[in-house]
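Dear Dr. H.,

I hope your travels went smoothly. While you were away I took the liberty of generating a structure for the chain from your last submission, since the lab meeting agenda had it listed for discussion. I wanted you to have the full record in hand beforehand rather than looking at slides cold. The sequence, exactly as received, is reproduced here:
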Amino acid sequence: MAGGDNGVLLGMMAANQARGGRGRANGGGSMFNVFPLMLIPVVGYALVAYLTGADMTSVIFSLPMVNGELDLSKGDVLIILGMVMLFIELIKSAGSGTATILNHGLSMGVFVICMVLFLLVGNFGTAPFFLITLMALMDTVAGFVVTIVSARRDLAVGGEA
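The corresponding predicted structure, in token form, is as follows:
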């Protein structure tokens, strides 16, 4: 075996020991870890766009502020929902198990669907949906990057043993 192969083997052994010898990889196999949460604001946008029309600028409610009112529209609420889902997705992406890899693949699918909808369907060609599409892109790219960095760190720790 070459020197790099020994490092990979040691990293895999260290990861297995860190899991306590269990067969399940980090991140588990639960449905929560596999489901791409960025699908929620996309489906929410689709429901709002087709049930109430494409007007995402109509105000839903106002929040009283010191300097006046903060008006939140339908699009604003969906962007806030997307930001919360993106945050949860980034936390989930720290794993390196099979469920995490499946989640990244499904997240890429969500991004491709968002891009096609934004470019080809009239009701989806709005600024709020563009921002949701960018969040789906950031989820995909950041998920892969965080998983790669996490896996490298696991291998580096295993190689020092």
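Two observations you may find useful: The radius of gyration is 20 Å. The first helix runs from residue 3 to 18.

With kind regards,
E. W.
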